[in-house]
Amino acid sequence: MSKQDKTRSVASLRELKQLRKALTALQAEQAALRQLQEQARQQAMRQAERDRQLFRQTVGAVRPLPSSDQVPADPALPDPLPLQHWADEKRVLLEAMSDEFDASTLLDTDDQLSFRRKGIGRDVVHKLRAGSWTIQRQIDLHGFRTDEAREALGAFIRQAQRQGLRCVRVVHGKGLGSPGRMPVLKGRVHSWLVQKNEVLAFVQARPVDGGAGALVVLLRAAAMTTSAVQVADALLEMQALAQQAAAVPAPDPVVAQVASWAAQYRSAKPKR
């Protein structure tokens, strides 16, 4: 087997491990979501039963209406969660950045390394170097293994762009602690960022911002329309808030009104 074939085999095994890890994480998320749905359903049923008992205690003895042969409907189940959409996004996140991608031909090699996407003027790079954009957030990849750094960087860029951030800093280090004092992550971070559509340009950071051990990255402006991922995040947050509220039941205005009517009825009812 040639050296090139061995390299490809190692890369294939690495990608297989990444996919297996992503699949395991996805299965765990699906199991957790199913458990959340079942807990929400059980909580809704218990709350409905508590409401019925409270209503009976408040109203007191009543004469039931004649049966109308109506069948009570089952409690509505929570809205389905977009599990397949999340799975697709996780797969895209893993596939979007490859270690085999050669970004060297796309980088501008002047006095300092930089990148600008097609259609982005050189003035943008100059402004980025001059600090015209405020750095709004950063990620530090020191101590990360290659696979961990790739996944963390991809998630960071995607989340920052979704939140409307325009300028972030990526700290990859100078490689002083690496074998042979050669920067391992530096070149790969360049390659990964070039492959991310959210990235418009990046430059080496100013000395005050990290110098050769960091990059300042300009992100594409987020779309004005709400993405499906944002909707999913909002639904999860609403679901969590609903579960917290269900744990401490608040006074029901309908039950309170019924109690008021029942008290008035008892006070107005003539005594025998």
Structural account:
The protein is of the alpha+beta class and 272 residues long. Helix content is 53%, strand content 10%. It has 7 helices and 6 strands, in the order ααββαβαβαββαα. The chain has helices at 3-59, 83-95, 122-130, 146-162, 185-195, 228-247, 253-268; strands at 108-109, 113-116, 137-140, 167-171, 199-204, 214-219. The protein has a 6-stranded mixed β-sheet, with helices on both faces. Helix 1 runs parallel beside helix 7 and helix 4 (146-162) packs parallel to helix 5.
What's this entry about, in short?
It is built from seven helices and six strands; from the N terminus they run ααββαβαβαββαα.
Percent of residues in β-strands: 5-15%
Structural class: alpha+beta
* Series of secondary-structure elements, N-terminal to C-terminal: HHEEHEHEHEEHH
Q: How many helices in DSSP terms? A: 7
Q: Count of DSSP E strands?
A: 6
What is the terminal-to-terminal distance? 104 Å
Q: What is the residue-averaged pLDDT?
A: 75
Give the strand line-up of the largest sheet.
1-2-5-6-4-3
Low-confidence spans: pLDDT under 50, at least 5 residues? 224-229
Helicity range: 40-55%
Largest sheet: 6 strands, mixed
User: What is the 3D shape?
Assistant: elongated
Please state the CA-atom Rg, rounded to the nearest Å.
29 Å
